[in-house]
Structure formats: C-alpha cells, structure tokens
Amino acid sequence: MTPLQTISELKKAIRSRSTVESEIHAQVERLSRKEASNGKPFYEVVLRDPTESMTLRAWTDTSAYESCDSLQNGDFVSVEGCFQNNGSFGLDAKGWTLRALPPEAIAALLEGTSERRELLEQAYERIIDAVAMIGDPRIRALCDHFLAQHGPRFRRAAAARGNHHARRGGLLEHTSRMLECALALCGVYPEINRDLMIAGVLFHDTGKLWETCPPERGFGIESELRGELLGHLSIGIELVNSIWRELPKEEWSSMVPSSDDVRLHLLHLIAAHHGQLEFGSPILPKTPEAALLHFIDNIDARMEMFFSSYETASMNSGGRGASLEWVRPLGVAPVNPLASYSPSLPEPIAEDLFFSLAKTPDKK
Description:
It is a single chain. The chain is an alpha+beta fold. It folds into two domains: 4-107, CATH 2.40.50.140; 113-307. It is built from eleven helices and six strands. The protein has helices spanning 7-16, 63-69, 103-111, 114-132, 137-156, 170-188, 194-203, 225-246, 259-272, 288-312, 347-359, and strands at 4-5, 19-35, 41-48, 53-59, 76-85, 91-100. Strands 1, 2, 3, 4, 5 and 6 form a six-stranded mixed beta sheet that branches. Helix 5 runs parallel beside helix 7 (194-203) and helix 9 runs parallel beside helix 10 (288-312). It is globular.
C-alpha cells in the first residue's frame, strides 16, 4: 500500500532516497496550461497542503494530463506516483495519477495532522494565557475583543507569503513564539511595559488577516483588495482604532497613563515594528517597547528560516558541518548547527565505574 505523506515529509524523504513512492493529499493552488520549448503542451500544477507546496507537470502522453483537463483552482486531490528530484526542475513524478478527494478526506486535510492540530492549539492557549496576564483593563479589553471578533481568521492566517511561517496557522505560531520571547525579556528588563508589549506582539501583524490569510476551505495564501492596497501595517493601525472606538470608556477618564497615550503607544509599535524606513515602517522605533518588538519579530522570523533550511534544503557538499543551500532573506548559506553536548560516558568506562562503585564498602 502506498504510504500517505505530507508534502514536507515527501521532500524530506526525497533527500535520503533517489525515488519515493507516495500518495499526497493537497489542494490545487494554481493550474496553468503551458508549452515546452519544442511546442509540446503540458499542465503545470501547483499543489499545497498544510505543510508546504510543490509543483508537478503533466504531459500530453500521460493520464494525469487528461485528469488536469477537468481540474480547477481550489480543487482537493489525491496524487499518487513515484517521486524524484529532477535536478533543475526540482521535485518531479513519473506515472503519477490524480483523483478528486472525497469530503471526509478534505475535512481531515483541512484540520491537519494530530501533531499539527496540537501545536496550533498550544500556541493559541499561550496567547490566551498571555492576554490574561495583562493588568491594564483598557489593553486587556482591546485584546479580548480582537480575539472574540477575529479569532477564527487569526488562527488560520499565514505570517507571510514566503520566507517564514508561510502556511495556514503560521501567524498563530509566529505570534505565540514572539510572546514567549517578549515575556522572557520583560523579566530581564523590568522597565519594559509588559502589558503594552503583550498587546504589541498580538497586534503587530494583525493586518495580515487581510493580506496573507487562506480561505476557510483552503491553503492558498490569498490577499484581499484591502491587503493589496493598504498593507498590513496600515490595516493593523486601522483595526486597533476601530476596536478602540467600540469599547466602553466611561471608567477610563481618570486612569493613568491617559487612554489616548496608551492607544498612541500601541499604534507606534505596529507602525515601527519593521524597524527601518526602507523595510516599510513609516516611522523608526522611538520607545524601548517598539525597539524590542522589532528585534523579537526579527529573531523569530530568522530562527524559523534557519530551522526550515535544515528541514527542506538539500546539502551543497557532504561531510559534517557542510553548508546548505543559500537562503536569500538570511543572506547566507546556513551551516548545520553544533549538536548539544552529551555527558554520557563511553560504554567501557561506564561499566568499570559501575563495578568499582559496587565493590566500594558501605561505610555507614
């Protein structure tokens, strides 16, 4: 029986074996009819599942070509075949077949693996726990209102179209890890306003709910017109202002610092979190919280790119410590990290130590 794998698992298996027989459940993200340089027509099919995307080509002399005639973007399919790495063409398959997925298989695919579901549930719980720690009732009310109003969309949004956390649920992962970093650093720097920091992490990328959010039944990272025309920083600022206007403010008039100052400082965190004008921020970070948010955002994105490169990149050269493929946003070809020290003793020494201890008289 052909094993069912995710696209990520398949790509990992291809690196250790020349060919892999596998079945993939995925959604058709893009279907294009093209012509080769010799005029031979073919279909190019971009498939995406909860983990990653892949591209296959169906030629006129294959059954897959006929199946593609009836395909549409957004269809859910099962692809089965013998997969291999075809040099400059990347992942390819021989004799692959394609069929529509039944409704129960579509539902299982959208939910993701049990490991993936658990990971995202834990990430959401960490966010809920962090919001519960907020002492300022105004900031707490703002965060609670956002999660109640936009929670489902927030849980499925991607953090980017590429580079890092570019997958369904990626924004949830990114936000959760950033909150862990922020809370740890607030312990190192007690001068930081922790309430503001938690809200800044939560809201900094909320504009991506309209810029890089898959549909309810899909994995494609789509952008609405709002996302295309305004970008996620502008949308995030607009979102905070719109929720702020909806909140009851009768008891806020005597609170210190003033409510308007609280709102403006949070808006500054969203506006400045890219850190540099050339990276899209309309203003440079001007508060400790804004600077810290920018660094934490950058740290988590870069760690994700390093760890992903170890998962997906093929080795450029063999041997221990060899560099991987070039990762453009990092500006380097990552090198395999140093393994953690293991204090375990060599087996013969451990045995000698055991016998010497066993022979030691009890002095009690």
